[in-house]
Amino acid sequence: MSELNLTDVAKTYGSVDVLKNINLDIETGELIVFVGPSGCGKSTLLRMIAGLEKISGGTLEIEGQVMNDVPPAQRGIAMVFQSYALYPHMTVRENMAFALKIAKMPTDEVDAAVDRAARILQLDPFLDRLPKALSGGQRQRVAIGRAIVRDPKVYLFDEPLSNLDAALRVATRIEIARLKEAMPDSTMIYVTHDQVEAMTLASRIVVLADKGIAQVGTPLELYETPDNEFVAQFIGSPSMNLLSGVITQTGETTIVKLDSGGTAVSRVATDASDAGKQVNIGVRPEDFQPADRDPILEGIVDFTEALGEVTLLYFAAEDGADTVVAKLPGVQRNMRGQTVAVTAEPDKVHLFHQGISMRK
Amino acid sequence: MHPAFQGLLTIAIGVSGCVGYFYFSNQFLDKVLFPARGPNAGRNINRANIIRPWLFLFPALAALGLYLAYPVVETLRLSLTDRVPGGGYTWVGLDNYIQMAREPKFWEAMRNNMFWLIIVPAMSTAFGLLVAQLTDRIRWGNIAKSLIFMPMAISFVGASVIWKLVYDTRPAEQDQIGMLNALYLFFGGSDPQTWLTIPFWNSFLLMIVLVWIQTGFAMVILSAALRGIPEETIEAAILDGANPFQIFFKIKVPQIKTTILVVWTTITITVLKVFDIVFAMTNGQWETQVLANYMYDKLFRANDWGVGSASAMVIMLLVAPILVWNVRNARKEME
Domain ABC transmembrane type-1: where (chain B) (predicted)? Predict the structure, then answer.
């Protein structure tokens, strides 16, 4: 059963559209990640679901019930903030118990709920401490604990890891993944700008761009079959190379003559009517491999970055074109200044016409 | 000489005197006393640097000593002596204090001061907090705040004159220019009241003047403190189901507790020293006496330096602990 539905949801500030035409069904037990560039409205959308921002248009339903004008506390959601938002004057126990006390739950039930959450998150030794006596990771766990005690239908996470240092971020990410596994029936919505978090945690990713949803899909769907150039370039690092060209042969496999001189073969099928169309081919840096003949690209390596496990080659950009990046496995020595030819398997070559994927 | 010119001249002399003092005293230290040359150059530089802070501190220490420390000692001495007619003085021990303790006026002043002490800081802080909270989210809030802050810019005597007009009484057959009487009659009061002569309640009418002044102060400090509360904690409380009152009392107020205490104690100290308002409005008549005005009465009206100084010591003893506590709190908040 679907847990949360967004239908034509929109947000405007005065006459400025921030979000429009947001349609999304979230199933029970999913972990949905909102990603997008900064300012794309992903946090705004989360806050609209939470009830902290007014919904300007469309409907939000949770378990079939319209929630547009329901106060935040009665929506069955709990939110974990980026800055933790712990109450600084309350101990860890009081922080976690606050919502239940407000709801006038009997004391023994409150204690039981707090103790259970503390056990899950290993917060038992810190229950009587004030937040300022905790480390960043512990504070984040308290913030999560505060959400758990309320036993919500939907958990909302607003960039919960971005205030932690790199090592702790990885550890906490795994903790959140474990927590999700321990609570298979809980639905989570998670906002991040970090695509590693998105790829590793999400059951489905929602890419937001240009006031709307660019694509929804599992992490690998977005990686393997992006619907448009934005998603193609947003998911994956370094981002997908786009090279412009003209379709010279259509059919089961399509051949594109590139403006830079190379030839690309793509497994994306095209109709005869597509011939001569101006298109962009997309190739991920990691899909490039050295070519003996018919290269997609032949160019001088302008710069290299050796990461050990892989080596990044940056090709000298022609006027106005984006720098093309290839990621070759292992250590590649003395590539700088060399002329290198690269190609890619036909089923790794994406085709975009006017920004939209030609895959059917 | 034109007074404006005199003023300018005073400023010029004062400022150049300060600059001159710092310049020449440092020159003397570096060039004459411990010159940075010769066989002991290194040692001299170190010594000069040990002395230098005291050069800068000296004017302030001297002024504080002369105008603060010395008067305290002198007041203590005066409170333990009596003047002998024709010159000189005699030590009388605690006689002045005993005499003061036997005067009903002193206990009236003590009692009134206690009322002032409880009511004015409480009301000023409460109103200040209320105004700070209520004006935070409305568009004309800043205008409201400026208006409420304005009494801070008026001297206590000026404020007293304004409020004397509010409490003014005219004979029954005339129009009332006092707002309180005008309202009183409008709402069905029979005769205009001489408000400031009604014992017990008149003290509260005087307190309103100080509350009116101090609310602005409390509001400005508390408004800044309220803005310093992280917005997310409030949003978290909204999500936790807290209503606006619970958010205010359980989330906001506890987070600015130290600021509230500092505001409270600062106003308390002002209250303990309150003099001008009582002096200008009732002069301590009709049971409105307070300690500072009592002291003034004794010192400068009755010319009883002994009892006057004794009451001054009482005020100081009452203020000192609050002052120490206040400074400690303010320091703790800065950490």
Answer: 110-326
| Shortest Cα–Cα distance, A214 to chain B (Å) | 29
In A, minimum Cα distance to B254 occurs at A89
- Please say whether the beta carbons of B154 and B272 come within 8 A: no
User: Which residues in chain A are closer than 8 Å to B237, comparing Cβ atoms?
Assistant: 87, 98
Is B55 a domain residue? yes
Q: Which residue has the higher pLDDT, B86 or B57?
A: B57
Average pLDDT in the A213-242 region? 90
Report the alpha-carbon angle A80-A83-A85, nearest 5. 65
Whether residue B101 sits in one domain with residue B71: no
Q: What is the CATH number of the domain that holds B297?
A: 1.10.3720.10
Asked if the model's pLDDT at residue A149 lies above 70, the reply is: yes
Report the alpha-carbon distance of residue B309 to residue B81 in Å, rounded: 10
Sign of the alpha-carbon dihedral angle for B42, B48, B49, B51: positive
Residue B233 to residue A86, Cβ atoms within 8 A: yes
Does residue A81 belong to the interface with chain B, where contact is any CB pair within 8 Å?
yes
Same domain for B17 and B107: no
Collect all residues of chain A within an 8 Å Cβ-Cβ radius of residue B238.
Answer: 51-52, 72-73
Query: Which chain A residues have a beta carbon less than 8 Å from that of B255?
Result: 87-89
Segment A337-349 shows an average pLDDT of 89
What domain range includes position B9? 3-79
Q: Which residue of B240, B246, B257 to mutate against A (max A Cβ within 10 Å)?
A: B240
Q: Give how many domains chain B has, as a whole number.
A: 2
For residue B181, tell me if it sits in a domain: yes
Domains of chain A listed by start with CATH number: 2-234 (3.40.50.300), 241-357 (2.40.50.140)
Counting residues of chain A whose pLDDT is more than 70, the rounded percentage is 98
User: CA A129: distance to chain centroid?
Assistant: 34
User: Is the peptide bond preceding residue A238 cis, with omega within 30 degrees of 0?
Assistant: yes
Highest mean pLDDT among A50-54, B10-14, B330-334: B10-14
